[in-house]
Amino acid sequence: xxxxxxxxxxxxxxxxxxxxxxxxxxxxxxxxxxxxxxxxxxxxxxxxxxxxxxxxxxxxxxxxxxxxxxxxxxxxxxxxxxxxxxxxxxxxxxxxxxxxxxxxxxxxxxxxxxxxxxxxxxxxxxxxxxxxxxxxxxxxxxxxxxxxxxxxxxxxxxxxxxxxxxxxxxxxxxxxxxxxxxxxxxxxxxxxxxxxxxxxxxxxxxxxxxxxxxxxxxxxxxxxxxxxxxxxxxxxxxxxxxxxxxxxxxxxxxxxxxxxxxxxxxxxxxxxxxxxxxxxxxxxxxxxxxxxxxxxxxxxxxxxxxxxxxxxxxxxxxxxxxxxxxxxxxxxxxxxxxxxxxxxxxxxxxxxxxxxxxxxxxxxxxxxxxxxxxxxxxxxxxxxxxxxxxxxxxxxxxxxxxxxxxxxxxxxxxxxxxxxxxxxxxxxxxxxxxxxxxxxxxxxxxxxxxxxxxxxxxxxxxxxxxxxxxxxxxxxxxxxxxxxxxxxxxxxxxxxxxxxxxxxxxxxxxxxxxxxxxxxxxxxxxxxxxxxxxxxxxxxxxxxxxxxxxxxxxxxxxxxxxxxxxxxxxxxxxxxxxxxxxxxxxxxxxxxxxxxxxxxxxxxxxxxxxxxxxxxxxxxxxxxxxxxxxxxxxxxxxx
Length: 639
What we know:
Blueprint: E1 21-27, E2 34-40, E3 42-44, E4 48-54, E5 59-72, E6 80-81, E7 90-94, E8 99-111, E9 117-129, E10 136-139, E11 142-145, E12 149-156, E13 162-171, E14 179-180, E15 188-192, E16 200-210, E17 215-225, E18 251-252, H1 260-266, H2 284-287, H3 293-297, E19 300-302, H4 305-317, H5 321-327, E20 333-337, E21 344-346, E22 351-355, H6 363-367, E23 385-393, E24 396-399, H7 414-435, H8 450-455, H9 460-467, H10 473-484, H11 490-494, H12 497-505, H13 518-535, E25 538-550, E26 553-561, H14 570-580, H15 586-592, E27 597-598, H16 621-631, E28 637-638
Parallel strand pairs: 3-9, 11-17, 19-20, 20-22, 21-28
Antiparallel strand pairs: 1-2, 2-4, 4-7, 5-6, 5-8, 8-9, 10-12, 12-15, 13-16, 14-15, 16-17, 18-19, 21-22, 23-24, 23-25, 25-26, 26-27
Helix pairs in contact: 4-7, 7-13, 9-13, 13-14
């Protein structure tokens, strides 16, 4: 496979590799300035479309709204298409039916020189024809802030075997470098958006080469948006040649929320340099002891409206909702964005930050999510053991979930969203309640800030560490290698899986991640306890030697189910959970919980899903590999 850096910038407008293109410059009533709208004028049914709008240098687009309506042909049966990022300067969507479509964009912009505001509406026509389906489909056209992380994915829409994939940039602000997956064929492309002095449209092309010698090409547009950046801001990483930023197209899920302006100012932007006061954005528990779902949604800040819709549906349907509404009192906001990876809680803002990958329900929603790997993916790769965890329920995988490879374009049920999200919510909210437990909410001064409070008060997890500490110094040090990026020394590289298993089994951690910080220890105890108690989902932990892979199976050196109820953990779980959800009778719940079960000798990771029947879960080797990759990305971070 050839991996190409961006090459010379050639003019090419449109997506899908078919038909003509639209490149329209629209003068304003007080010309100049003008708007540039780009997108394909003709596509084949089944392809992915994208359209982009930018303003010239010296002006800034302040708001956008796109609509896509079918006006003739078979497509009129479906009516309008609702782009999932209609509030941004670039939209992408699949066209599934032939016909004529009308693309309308309304953009408001201001001039830096005159501070005058203009609003323009322009329309483009798109013809979708029936023809041989496209073999390569590149997704998804979208807007990215300069310095932001970008991911693109190309699908093989044929029955042929792909032998080579090449990527190249055709036009737009020059992208310094592309990065790829470690696989022989990289269907995913990642890059950091370059700095720009004015909005720019980057054209990216992917070419698939097939085993019969034929090729198929598709292109996609990414708007690189010129944004305001403070290099000292909390969310700006200024350590590289290009400052890394977060998205600038966040919005309050409830536009009329009384906290909409505070969410914009206080929780996720590229100019935030100080912790807002509780007067500006109080914790939910300062406002009410019995929050409703509406109270939570008023504090929800998203990069795409569908994420708020999925969160609302989750809160309305999950068995965990009553617990979570109580735990949500400890936070100031819920932030969900396509570029958050991994999820985390941050005491500086008092908010939880959630990876949108846990929320998607349709392949179209999934297309809008950044898939760049967790920055910690390579940490600890030279250690000679692995530790995985998972949730199982009714003798089946509960999380991570099977059958959801991106290439299958699968939908996810509400039960699937529940499984993907509940453990994460328990975990992140345990962090929040660790720093701001229920005894503190009524004592917080409006003039105080989350950061100042945290710097002057001791979290609950410190009490756990002082009273019932984890004792393995070896595992504490190894966790800094696996999660903190420390370099493993020769002694650590020589540790066997059996040694690690002996240290782990006799100590009081529920998972290896518990050794990273006392904060993670606390949150993991709450998460595992509540998932078993409320959701009936059992957590497994397995330890494997570095060479234990055999035809997609992992031979277990040591493994245990329901470790949260192990004798070494019961007091520790009681300590953590009782301080987060004091209304629960922890000893009575523990008495009713299943006894921990050790995996049988000689078992593999996949034939222990059903411990009552010695048979492997029915997965292909590709599915097993997907599960293992998912296992490696399950952890999260906490500040």
